Amino acid sequence: MPLPALRRAIAATSALAGALALGVTAVPAHATTTLNYAALGDSYSAASGVLPVDAGNLVCLRSTANYPHVIAARTGARLTDVTCGAAQTKDFTQSQYPGVAPQADAVTADTDLVTLTIGGNDNNTFIGAMLACGTAGILSGGQGSPCKDTYGSSFDDAIDAHTYPALRSALHSVRAKAPGARIAVLGYPWITPAKADPSCFAQLPVASGDVPYLHALQAHLNAVVRRAAEETGATYVDFSQASEGHDACQAVGTRWIEPLLFGQNIVPVHPNALGEQRMAERTMSVLGLG
């Protein structure tokens, strides 16, 4: 081969090798980019009642086995976890407890991923309804629908009038902090079955006619959470099918939510470790993380 042609061939080979090298190194560099992950939300995000407890913030009763920690462990994400038991939507923009910063402060322009559950504590929707219906169930011996008869649409009315606009405002505040982040808003897994299970009354003392009442209330809350998420550009993670058959009336090892009485968590009517794991897996599936 003449010398000029040989030089051209060597140069072409070198250029090709360089291009291949760049291509080979570019993919792993992108694949190994660490996600900056901020976890916000209430006790369902914090896994209040699940051991071990995060000793760095006992007031929030946050578990290091909550779904944000599961997601971070499986994706290698850099996690900032500010989830806190009893959090309401207002606690995204103001301090929930002395020394506890507003949750949205954990979100920055560098944040890639945000997850959260929120809304269930607004208007005491969960706590108020469960205590009211549990008390009424005990007093009625499990018969009829005393809670529904007493409270009617009041819980639902409060969700529409107060929780929905508060959710939109809270999600807008998060989006403003990190315009480019993926925001995943999780629905709440089922607490009660769709219909009463008489064998469950000792653990979840809700009257037979109030079990579907509470189930419908939770469905309404989740629908409002979905609506607020979609209207603010967030991804809604739906558990209506995934958590079917894993409510608080199911056996240990099947249920994701612990019952009101005789459960295994120190905080009743909340996800157990299995529930948090499944919430993480469902969220990763919806977001395409792995």
Which features characterize this protein?
disordered N terminus, alpha/beta, about 290 residues, single chain, 5 strands, globular
Q: How would you portray this structure in words?
A:
This protein has 290 residues and is α/β, with parallel strands linked by helices. The chain contains 8 helices and 5 strands. It has helices at residues 3-31, 43-46, 67-75, 125-139, 146-151, 154-177, 211-231, 273-287, and strands spanning 36-39, 78-81, 113-116, 182-186, 235-237.
The percentage of residues in β strands lies in 5-15%
Distance between the termini: 52 Å
Strand element count: 5
The number of helical elements comes to 8
| CA radius of gyration | 24 Å
Q: Which sequence of SSEs, written as H and E, runs from N to C?
A: HEHHEEHHHEHEH
Main sheet record: 5 strands, parallel
- Helix % is 40-55%
Kindly name the structural category: alpha/beta
In what order do the strands lie side by side in the largest sheet?
A: 2-1-3-4-5
The 3D shape can be described as globular
State the low-pLDDT regions, or none: 1-31
Mean pLDDT: 90
